[in-house]
Description:
It is a single chain. This protein has 213 residues and is an alpha+beta fold. It folds into two domains: 2-78, Glutaredoxin (3-Layer(aba) Sandwich), CATH 3.40.30; 85-190, Glutathione S-transferase Yfyf (Class Pi), Chain A, domain 2, CATH 1.20.1050.10. It has seven helices and four strands, in the order βαβαββααααα. A four-stranded mixed β-sheet has the order 2-1-3-4, with helices on one face. The structure holds glutathione.
Amino acid sequence: MLTLFDYLPSQNAWKVRLLLNQLDRPYRTVPVSIFEGEGQTATYRQISPTGTVPAIRLDDGRVLAESNAILAYLAEGTPYLPRDPFERAKVQQWLHFEQERVESVIGALRHWTMTGKLSRRSPELVAGKRAGAQRTLDILERELAIRPFIAGDHYTIADMALFAYASLAGEAGLSLDAHPHFRDWIARIEAQPGFLACMHPYAIDPHSVNELP
Ligand SMILES: N[C@@H](CCC(=O)N[C@@H](CS)C(=O)NCC(=O)O)C(=O)O
């Protein structure tokens, strides 16, 4: 059975849980307490070179890290990853966008906001992230005004990846009032069969107030 190396408040890991739920694929979980340093042990770094979650281990012992690489692997041959080379590349386009402009911008702001770290960051850094987050939301608003899903007419792993942090922009202190198409897209994703509504706040982990090692 597939093994998922997981940390419950991680939305990167939630992406993988979402896909596994939508595929109705069984898996077992190994929790990794990232704020206590479990990600940075030599043993775990053989599974995930950066020490981050999520990562997976297959039945044959092979391991794979990076949430979007895991999504692409698990979605192969399913409706969530198109076969057509151009349509696949479009999915990749938005997976790259997600890592560069959503996870590392909205995701970081949300992490700092939810765990009390915002005041420990420089005002310039926070202002830069806020401006970047606003640009990201504006891009998504424009794109989602002209098609139902981010990579085309169908729901794909690109939507799953984006949803993980972009849909929680409010928890990063960002307003979605001026983004009606983006809000409609959120509702469209939540209505997908097998959607995983269960998300876990950082507050379930008392160690999350600490800096990552
Ligand atoms: N690009 C990676 C980012 C993964 C990541 O940063 N995961 C966080 C949890 S959301 C983590 O494990 N952080 C621990 C650390 O940075 O040491 C991915 O998409 O999987």
